[in-house]
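ingest -> validate -> predict -> emit
validate: passed (alphabet ok, no gaps, 182 aa)
predict: started
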Amino acid sequence: MQVYEYHGRYFDEWRAKHGAPANDRLPEIDLSPINNTLNAQAIPPVKAVGLAYLKAHFPEYLLFYFSRMPNLFIDSGYSTVINGLTLINGQALAVMLFLASSFFVIISLLALLNPLFHYKINRQWPKEKIFLIIVILLYTAIATPISAARFRIPLNFFLFLLAIDAVFILCQMKIIKVKDNL
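emit:
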């Protein structure tokens, strides 16, 4: 069911934006037997249609899939909260969303570059940090193509941990200067 509802529909919308012909789109299926009556026997045919569509356009689907991965690290998630506020004008809203997205991009970059910073100081690859990066990337592959900010919540702990460690390493490298009398 998710193959049709999420992967198939998001991919179909993306293909439509990129000029896919109308006769080569995801077929519409009546989901009311599943949604209204919770008839589990209606799920396999829906799943089969979704899988057939994804298999027919597999190289294009891979491009779509990997192009959506960075959204997990760019989307701040604040747009859904802030859109409901009428007190903020459009320009202030755009600045707030840009700053929030920039914050998460910086955190993600620091986290992903952490093993390189560690290698530069110690001349040894940190196996534990590389393992965490692999876990982050595998989770990102699973959470794609939907990749909304709410799917990043399980990763935030690891991202912030690696980012803070990267800042400490940069301080040791004297790239970031810290006053001694703090």
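The mean pLDDT is 86.
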